[in-house]
Amino acid sequence: MNQIALPLAWPADEQGEFFIVDSNARAVRMLEHWATWPVRTALLAGPPRSGRSLLGRIFAARSGGAVIDDADRADEEELFHAWNRAQEERRPLLLIAAALPPAWPVALPDLRSRLAASPAATIGPPEDALVAALFEHGFARRHLDARPDLIAWLTARTGRSHAAVMETIDRLDQAALAGRRRLTIPLARETLDGDPAANKRSDQAS
């Protein structure tokens, strides 16, 4: 599994790492090759907590371009003018949204046609390798000792979404702190028992 190296000028308190796997590799390639875009604007879609905003910040730092996050909730007239300005100034613009059109409904016809002409990529649900890496990295950032057997146990039982992984880390962090206990499979089982998000795959993994 590869990682994007963060820019040298990255703030010291920025806790971001982006792991490159099959589910996001196409998005990474699109942003790496921004100079070859047919227009100066591209669309990046992804579910919550998928790293889409971090990827946008890395893109902006490397390209000198602009980023509009949550573009699907922005004013359409403003997006229209931003799209045109990017072409005029030859400065790349990345629009980040939860989904691509037509799942992102765009009412303004001129904006809709411009977005249709823009390159686009979607970050998909995380595969097992990424789920395991997110657990390992998330626990390490909180200075929690998560053994390989626990990582494997959680990976087999956690729903396939970035948010589910992060929510599971939060719950186990709180449980370990409250009980002053080590992270173990028994603690995870006690904490997550009956949680549909955390046990979505438990039937297959038991």
UniProtKB/TrEMBL annotation:
Q: Which Pfam families match?
A: Hda_lid
* Protein name per Swiss-Prot or TrEMBL: Chromosomal replication initiator protein DnaA
Q: Where is the Hda lid domain?
A: 139-192
Record-linked InterPro entries: Hda_lid, P-loop_NTPase
Check the record and name the Gene3D superfamilies matching this protein: 1.10.8.60, P-loop containing nucleotide triphosphate hydrolases (3.40.50.300)
Q: Which organism is it from?
A: Sphingomonas endophytica
Lineage top rank: taxon: Bacteria
